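Dear colleagues,

As part of the handover before I leave the project, I'm documenting each prediction I ran so the next person doesn't have to rerun anything. This entry is a single chain, and its sequence is reproduced below.
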Amino acid sequence: MNIELMLLEDSDGDETLGFSFWKRNLKTTDDKKKVVSMIHHLYHMQCIESSMDVEHLDEILEDISYSKVGFVMDVNPSTQNYALYAYNANQK
């Protein structure tokens, strides 16, 4: 399974790390664990504890119709706290 790392621009215009992957490549539990591990790293970069696990990832991905999914952390404008955002990485 390939995971692409990239520098993205956050809402403040600063560079931040994000990653993307093709959903069709999530074939095994180990593949899903790699994605969850990357999500943990995104949270850790913001000094936030993550409780994400494979079951949470499955639930999130069920609601995302993109074929290539990207994840990035950014500040939620309404709460001013960091949040995990998904985006359509096939359009980047």
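The chain is about 30% helix and 30% strand. The mean pLDDT is 93.

All the best with the project,
I.
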